[in-house]
Amino acid sequence: MASFFDDFNEELSIDHLSLEAIAALVDNELSAKAEHRAKIHLVHCAQCREEVKAQRAAAERIRGHDVPVHASGSLLEKLARIPEAASAAADQRVAEKDRRTFAADGCRRPETLADRVGLILRKLSQR
């Protein structure tokens, strides 16, 4: 889940891993590349290493707890709606991109200024 590394540059960075990235690392949910980048950062950042250590300790406490964890019905309902909401948001982003990419007549719009100038020159040369 590289999206968790919004503040993490390709080069070594003084920025810290987000809490979401730390949780994903502890839960083995990062892609191989993202995990590698996180581990490189941890070599150089004591603060993030401490956060990972605390997150791992918390995860172990929860896993080792014999009492079943119960969630309220409303929480389960909200959690169940997350994939639907994410899918709807993705559909909306695609529709917005299509609206920006295609003109009302269905023709593809030029993406860059150079493309627009080239299109205008081609139309003028056809006249």
Automatic annotation (TrEMBL):
InterPro entries: Anti_sigma_zinc_sf, Znf_put
Domain Putative zinc-finger: 20-49
Pfam family, one: zf-HC2
Superkingdom of this protein's organism: Bacteria
Gene3D superfamilies per record: Anti-sigma factor, zinc-finger domain
Keyword annotations from UniProtKB, A to Z: Transcription, Transcription regulation
Name of this chain's protein: Anti-sigma factor CseE
